[in-house]
Amino acid sequence: MANGRPPDPADWAVMDVVNYFRTAGFEEQARAFQEQEIDGKSLLLMTRNDVLTGLQLKLGPALKIYEYHVKPLQTKHLKNNSS
């Protein structure tokens, strides 16, 4: 467990995802992940378009969330599971 969350984002519950974004400084935006019931598996499947339009977030925070958080988590997950 890292920060109270399983190390693999695929194992995160909705509240793990919410807490991840709260910890990253996206308190307001974290609510959208909770409202849309985005768990770890869903987070790893999200596209840039999902984050930018599907969550109804302001563009600036949505871009940062995708580029600096969602995409790196997806990349790390793929690397860890491709071996």
TrEMBL record:
GO molecular function, one term: histone binding
One BP term from GO: negative regulation of DNA-templated transcription
SUPFAM superfamilies for this protein: SAM/Pointed domain
A cellular-component GO term for this protein: nucleus
Occurrences of domain SAM (ranges): 12-60
PANTHER family the UniProt entry points to: ATHERIN-RELATED, POLYCOMB GROUP PROTEIN
Protein name (record): Sterile alpha motif domain-containing protein 13 isoform X2
Natural source organism: Dipodomys ordii
Top-level taxonomy: Eukaryota, Metazoa, Chordata, Craniata, Vertebrata
Gene: Samd13
